[in-house]
Amino acid sequence: MDGWTAPSAIERELYGAKTRGDWPGYLDALARAELFLPQSRAQVDADPRTARFHPSPRDGSLAVYTRGMLPAPDPGTVFLRQSLAWFANAWDERDPAYLAVNPGTPAEAYLSTTPADRARWRAHWDAAPAWGLAPGAVHALHTGGPLHGPVAHGLAVGAHLAVSNGEFWNALAYHGKGYTRERERLRKAWGITDAAGWFEVLRRMQAAEVVSPVWEFALRVRRMLASDFAGPVDVEHWRHAAEYGLRRSAEQATEPKLTPEGVTVAEPRPAAELAGEIAGVRRLIGRITRYEQRFRADGLLPEDGWVRSVEGWDLGRASQMARWGLAARYCTLEDTERAVVRAGEAAVGTYRSWEELSAGYALGRCLHFDEEEFGEWYASSLATHLTLTTEPTSPWLNIPWR
Question: What domain range includes position 360?
């Protein structure tokens, strides 16, 4: 079909091989692609370990779809992610005579399923250098996903995770790694097992309540100092100001308050508890300062740059959580769209550029995971930042911050 725009590089490669009549090349591309098998959600919920073949009533073939060809999620149908090798091994003589890849599209192919055919599938799988979208690169839907506007902006707020996980950054109608794997991801990582749990975690991320309030307190003190003095903030000045803020907060907590029950006076906090809190914040300021020094050296911050807030870590995850909930069928597409747009709006309210958002996201991630080892957590955050700020196809270079 002349003029057809493939949704992604996956389908473009399949279409090109098909139009050339290069069927070995088609199988090469297919072996590298994730294949999604439609299933009845009710059946999967009843028995998540079993994948069922549902032949087409029209021609008896079994339909599978590559990632860019997946339809918008609906409540009754879900998709399981498999490989070409899995189909080769799972097939038997009772199964359909044809595997229909992306049926009804210009990239479609009907593959016969004899033992010799399946042996060829396995050979192409064995020769494939990789499977699925490569992590660490920018992947996008050229059709079927927003490239500009508020929804695209909100999705780009979550681009750190999309790039590091090897996913389309702009797939709003998201299926991820398939229904069962997405549910397992939410259960293991966040304890989410139902829609209510998902909505609560998303709400907390949107409000930046998951990230440590102590980290944000320390950074907020510096923002206020920088605003007051219109210049760089000395580290010891920052520490003293944070200590004063903590002591003043402790004093205010003991001041008499008029309540419906009368005047109440809280007991003073133990001196050792307050001293420990102050010492912890002073150490935290040292950690932040050392991370920022490394950020500047490696190009994650400009020479005179500093991190405004770590709320970006929550907002970036909120953008992705909106999609994860849809893949797990804990919400609707409309819920996801609203949540993504809200993440974008919140990010603009906190930061002044994509680069500032990225630095805040990276600092939050490193403070949580890295322990100043500057190991894989730091290295992957830096690599993703550099990709998103230099790759010509990056949404950050194609979508205005405001």
Answer: 150-206+311-397
